[in-house]
Design goal:
- This protein has 749 residues and is mainly alpha-helical.
- The protein folds into 4 domains: 65-228; 254-363, no CATH class; 414-593, no CATH class; 596-744, no CATH class.
- The strands form 5 sheets. Strands 7, 8, 9 and 10 form a 4-stranded antiparallel β-sheet that branches.
């Protein structure tokens, strides 16, 4: 088979293939030149590879150095940072608010790092690459630092200006309008918002800042105003005073203002309730009190309170000014018809409570305290007293107050036994001062101070008041004695327990046991007189026990000091009794009353003359007057002893029976008894339940005082030792049983 040969197969090709040459082989010129070219190319290729190698090696070295540049060095064991990396240093500089300083610091940092690392580079191209990298860092970091620090500087400057603005806001909110401080703050605010520098600093936020500032001024002003007066703040808010509040604050703060006003109003209405009980005018109108509650569910409740206070206020004066007794019972309450029945009913309850409160205050010895609260003039005097600087000013005010109280007591028929010149709280305060005084001199100083303050004439009334407030019995006894040594020993004595222990160990048992017996024997007449006092005038048992304990303490103290049992008992009891003449048996005559000396014989003579007039004349009928004796039989106990036929008889028969019964009892069995102060004597007779005072329908008694009493008050003036009949003023007939004409008869013969 014939083989086909194609053209391409026999045509020369352009491909050059490597062929092995042999010795002696001849080559062409072209072929000969190819060899050096190949060698050159080979060398170039090697050089390029080397350069690439050096480049890569340098790049790697630079990268490692840059990594080391950013490393933060930490101390082993402690974890403390000893050196910040470059990047952290740059970040720190970015936080600066001082661009110039930050840039200077960065340049120094960059240069230090550059100079530190550059000499250490070994790669052929490392320094070039490092320089390029550091140059890029410089451009990038310096730009960032510059931008950030300028922003920081601006923000800091803004903050400083805002703080200044906040100070202006504070001054505007906390200083009264039109005050110098407020006016200056207004000027400062105007200067701030007209400053071109401030406008450029805040840029497009400047207008918003102005709006926010005005809003903040109003918001802070509201906070200040709420602390002062929430209700006035509410009124200001409703009147549009806070016009710069934004919409959110107007709603949010408006609700808070309303709630605060409601809370304050609730508190004020409680105070208003107390003011209404005093008859004081309301601080605000009903509309002002009710305004914060309009639209709220508790509106009606608050209105009820406001109405009740008004009803009480309009009616309470009659409670303060009604005469004691029937006057209080005739006080008119509200008719529970028409509108506001609930408020009227509540007002009636309050008025009834106030009536009871007045009665209790007077009963408890707090008449001065009660009327000092409800009387405007007395309240003013109390305020002046609190502000008085000197004791002389205080004395004058007390005398003014006494005059006003006396007038008040007279006008309202307050019983004389309940008339005091200080409040119950004040009296209790002085008692506590006495109790807490560490030394007897201090106790005495308290009482002496009171005598100086209230005056000698009023001091007995002060002591009586303190006694009601539990003035220690030893202090009461010390006031009753003129013996300075006894006064000192009573007040200075230690506790009776300690004295008993010491004395018991020093004297024999019989002598110790005799102390109480001998005290009782010495006080026998005194004790009989106290026991005869009418019930209720003093706590007789308490007085006698307290007296014996006080004297016993003084005796024990003297025994301990002088080692003389009998002498100590005698001296103490004698010193105490030396102030009293107990010879009348049914009463004693003190040596003096409040420092004013008595005349024992004159007192006894007048007492005998009155008793003789009662027994032998028509004095009893004249003393009782036209109203007669019926008042003696008006009590349940008195009515109980009346015969049945008298109880159901005519008024004439009743009157006649009572007169006859009482007159016979008085004429047959009467005796003098001390009054409840020990300042005089009252003639008593044997009634249905023991001895009771002879007393007419006016409340006047057959009574006279040992000395004139300048402090006595009331419609009845109680006479002292002038020889006049008590109640009628008619001169007494004084007949000496030893006087027979012009001659004296010796009855002993």
């Amino acid at each position: 088979m014939a083989i086909k040969i194609y053209q391409s197969q026999i045509r020369p090709t352009e491909e050059v293939t490597e062929r092995a040459t042999t010795s002696g082989m001849k080559i062409s010129q072209q072929t000969a030149t190819m060899v050096p070219r190949a060698m050159k190319g080979m060398l170039q290729a090697g050089e390029d590879f080397y350069i690439k190698y050096e480049q890569i090696k340098s790049e790697n070295e630079v990268q490692e150095k840059l990594k080391d540049l950013n490393k933060t060095e930490i101390e082993a064991g402690t974890g403390n940072v000893t050196k910040l990396g470059y990047g952290n240093e740059v970040n720190k500089l970015k936080e600066s608010t001082k661009p110039d300083e930050a840039m200077a610091s960065y340049k120094q940092l960059w240069q230090n790092k550059y100079d530190q690392i550059l000499p250490t580079l070994k790669g052929k191209f490392s320094k070039k690459y490092f320089k390029n990298a550091m140059d890029k860092k410089f451009i990038s970091d310096s730009g960032t630092i510059r931008d950030n620090t300028f922003v920081n500087f601006r923000n800091e400057t803004r903050a400083v200006r805002v703080n200044k603005l906040n100070d202006i806001v504070y001054r505007l909110a906390n200083n009264p309008e039109k005050s110098a401080a407020h006016n200056q703050a207004l000027v400062d605010k105007g200067n701030f918002f007209t400053s071109q520098n401030n406008y450029e600093l805040f840029g497009d936020k400047f207008k918003q800042l102005q709006f926010d500032t005005n809003n903040n001024i109003d918001a802070l002003t509201i906070e200040v105003d709420l602390d002062k007066d929430p209700r006035q703040t509410y009124r200001n808010f409703k009147a549009g005073k806070y016009k710069n509040l934004n919409a959110i604050n107007k709603t949010k703060i408006g609700l808070r203002i309303t709630l605060a006003a409601q809370q304050q109003t609730t508190i004020d209405l409680a105070e208003e309730g107390e003011r209404s009980k005093l008859g004081l005018a309301a601080k605000f109108s009903a509309d002002e009190y009710l305004a914060p509650f309009k639209g709220y569910k508790n509106y009606e409740k608050i209105k009820n309170i406001v109405d009740t206070n008004d009803y009480v206020r309009n009616a309470i004066t009659q409670v303060h000014t009604a005469k004691s007794g029937e006057g209080l019972s005739k006080i008119k309450l509200y008719d529970l018809t028409g509108d506001n029945i609930g408020s009227k009913k509540k007002a009636n309850n309050i008025i009834s409570i106030e009536i009871a409160k007045r009665q209790k205050s007077i009963k408890d010895g707090d008449a001065a305290g009660y009327f000092s609260k409800v009387d405007t003039d007395l309240r003013e005097l109390d305020n002046r007293y609190q502000q008085a600087k000197t004791s002389e000013d205080k004395k004058k005010i007390i005398q003014e107050k006494k005059i006003l109280l006396d007038q008040k007591y007279n006008d309202l028929n307050i019983p004389s036994s309940k008339r005091f010149y200080m409040s119950k709280a004040e009296a209790n305060g002085y008692v506590q001062q006495v109790k807490n005084a560490p030394r007897w001199q201090d106790k005495e100083a308290v009482m002496q101070g009171l005598q100086d303050l209230y005056g000698k004439d009023n001091f007995p009334k002060v002591v009586e008041h303190l006694r009601l407030e539990k003035l220690p019995i030893e202090n009461q006894i010390s006031l009753s004695t003129n013996s300075a040594s006894l006064k000192k020993d009573i007040l200075a004595a230690d506790s009776i327990k300690d004295l008993d222990k010491n004395v018991k160990s020093e004297i024999n048992s019989a002598a110790y046991k005799s102390i109480d017996t001998k005290i009782s024997q010495a006080l026998n007449k005194y004790e009989d007189i106290v026991t005869a006092l009418p019930d209720g005038s003093v706590n007789k048992t308490e007085h006698l026990v307290g007296l014996k304990n006080s004297l016993r303490k003084a005796i024990l103290l003297r025994i301990q000091r002088d080692n003389d049992v009998s002498g100590s008992i005698t001296s103490v009891t004698k010193e105490f009794l030396s102030d009293y003449d107990t010879s009348p048996r049914s009463y004693w005559i003190p040596k003096d009353v409040n420092g004013e000396p008595t005349t024992s014989e004159v007192i006894k003579t007048k007492a005998e003359a009155i008793q003789l007039a009662v027994e032998t004349s028509d004095y009893i009928e004249r003393f009782h007057g036209k109203d007669g004796f019926a008042h003696y039989a008006t009590t349940p106990s008195s009515m109980g002893v009346l015969p049945d036929n008298v109880k159901i008889s005519t008024d004439k028969v009743f009157q006649s029976y009572v007169k006859d019964t009482i007159t016979k009892s008085i004429k047959k069995n009467s005796k003098w008894i001390l009054n409840n102060k020990g300042t005089g004597i009252v003639l008593n007779f044997d009634g249905t339940k023991g001895f009771i005072p002879i007393q007419n329908s006016k409340g006047e008694k057959i009574e006279f005082l040992f000395v004139d009493d300048p402090s006595q008050i009331g419609s009845q003036t109680i006479e002292s030792t002038e020889y006049n009949e008590p109640g009628t003023g008619r001169p007494l007939t004084i007949i000496s049983p030893y006087d027979f004409g012009d001659s004296e008869v010796d009855l002993d013969q």
